[in-house]
Each structure stands twice: as structure tokens, then as C-alpha cells.
Amino acid sequence: MRHLPPLNALRVFESAARHRSFAAAGKELFVTSSAVSHQVKTLEEYLGLSLFDRSRRTVTLTPEGEQYLTSVRHAFDEIEMATQRLTENQESNVVKISVAPNFLTRWLMPRMARFQALYPDIELEINASMGLLDFDRTSTDMAVYFGSGEWDDIEVHFLRRVMLVPVCSPQLLEGELPLEKPEDLAKHTLIYVSKRKWEWENWLQQSGVDFISARGSLQMSSGQLATAAAQEGLGVALADSTLTSREIKSGKLVVPFDIQLDTNRAFYLVYRKQRPLTVGMKAFKEWLMSEM
């Protein structure tokens, strides 16, 4: 038999601790503040210690209360997520998706009309995010990750490799400093993604250029910003040839050297391991992999 404290008192404690107020907890739970105080007292007597320091106007958690709240909140989060997973509607046509900003604006958004035409009854809720998700602690259904594909405890489906090519504004090619061979990059500003500075070094080596001292350099925090800077004529950036296909076709960007760098990374569609797919998730997965 489990040695658990009174569960209703535990629920009241979590609410009171979260609000730092017995009155606010009472409003949330539809009971009086005195009832909240009684439940907290019951829990304190069970534990044999004080969880709150009480004054006339405020209540504050004791160090023991703070420590206990962390564990209780974690346990409640686990119960809440387990309940959501158990009651997921497999017929749901709403799909919550997390996508890297560059992939979202340059690849997914331009193709959304095609998805809507094929699946008019499917509603997508899209969030732009760079970070990895804990699918056990989020309501997000699926995500598009960029990386090596080596992530634990999630289903991973390969979409496409990321191949980089140099891109710049057409005005840059029409200027006084031509770009006729890779060595000519020494006369121009190279635009780096700050966390991936090795990409330019690898591309130059692959192009047969041992070393160049570029005219200047510009660092951006993301590939999306680096590509935008190149489009504004600020220098030459390395960009995914697929994500920038619209700008290249329209002439807003040009590829001075058609030499591709394989980053050994790719885009992947991911979701919680062993999760049954809803109608909406199946539709999005099939469409995305077909488009890719």
C-alpha cells in the first residue's frame, strides 16, 4: 500500500503555493480561504512540518515548502500529461506543429496553400521554435527538427539533407569586384551563422581554396538572417539551396558558384515515440514527406 498524503490536501497546497495566496487558491478551487487553510493544515500535520509562513496579509513558503512544491508540481504535470495522452482524440483534425523559423518562412509557408487545397478540413497550429521539445510535457503534436537525426525517445522521419551554396545579391555581381572564381571571395564580405562558422571553411576547402583573408565578415544568429543580409547586398552567405529556391528563381538572389556543401545534417519530422497518429497528423505527415 502506498504511503501517500491526503490527495485533496495536496491539490489545495499546490494551488495555494502557486498563487502564494489562500484566497486566490480558494477562488480557483471554488472553496473558501478558510477551507484552503484547513486543508493545508491537514497536510502539514501529516508531514509533521510547516509548509507556509503565515502573516496577517500574506503567506510565504518555507524552505521545506519550496522543496515540496517542486516535487508535487512535477507529479501533477506528469498526471496531467498522462491523462491528455490517454484521452487524445484519434479523429482530431487539429495539428499543433513546431518548426524552425527559417524552414517555416522559406519552405513551409509558400506551400501552405497546396496543403489547404488537399486537406481543407485539417487545421494547423504552427509555432516557430529553434529548441528541442519534451513531447511528454507539451501539447505540441509534431515538430520539424534540423540536425543529425540522433534524438532519443521520439519517432524520427528523414525529410531531406541540407546542402549549402553561396548566395548573394545580383547587384554584387554587377559591381566593380567580380565573382568569377572562389578565390574572388577574398574581395567580399563573408556572412557567417555565428554557431556554424565552420561551414565557410569547409566550403572553401571543398572548392580548392586553402585559405583566404576575406575583405570582411558579418555574423548573424541564424541562417534566415544571413540569407536576408545577402539579399540586401551586405555580402555572400551560405544558404540551403532548397529553402532559398524562391529567391533564386525570382532573381532576388544569385548563386555565383554552383558548388554544394553537404552539411551532414538534415530536416526531420518528429513526434512522441509510439504515439498513435490522429487523422490530422497522418495527413500532415504524408503531405510533408511527399512535398519533400
Automatic annotation (TrEMBL):
Q: Does the keyword Amino-acid biosynthesis apply?
A: yes
Q: Show the GO MF annotations.
A: DNA-binding transcription factor activity; sequence-specific DNA binding
Q: Where would I find the HTH lysR-type domain in this sequence?
A: 5-62
Answer yes or no on keyword DNA-binding. Answer: yes
Pfam families of this UniProt entry? HTH_1, LysR_substrate
What top-level branch of life does the organism fall under?
Answer: Bacteria
Q: Name one GO biological process term.
A: DNA-templated transcription
The record's keywords, sorted A to Z, are: Amino-acid biosynthesis, Aromatic amino acid biosynthesis, DNA-binding, Transcription, Transcription regulation, Tryptophan biosynthesis
InterPro entries recorded: LysR-type_TF_proteobact-type (IPR058163), LysR_HTH_N (IPR000847), LysR_subst-bd (IPR005119), WH-like_DNA-bd_sf (IPR036388), WH_DNA-bd_sf (IPR036390)
Which PANTHER family does the UniProt record give?
A: GLYCINE CLEAVAGE SYSTEM TRANSCRIPTIONAL ACTIVATOR, HTH-TYPE TRANSCRIPTIONAL REGULATOR
Family per similarity comment: Belongs to the LysR transcriptional regulatory family.
Q: What is this protein called?
A: HTH-type transcriptional regulator TrpI
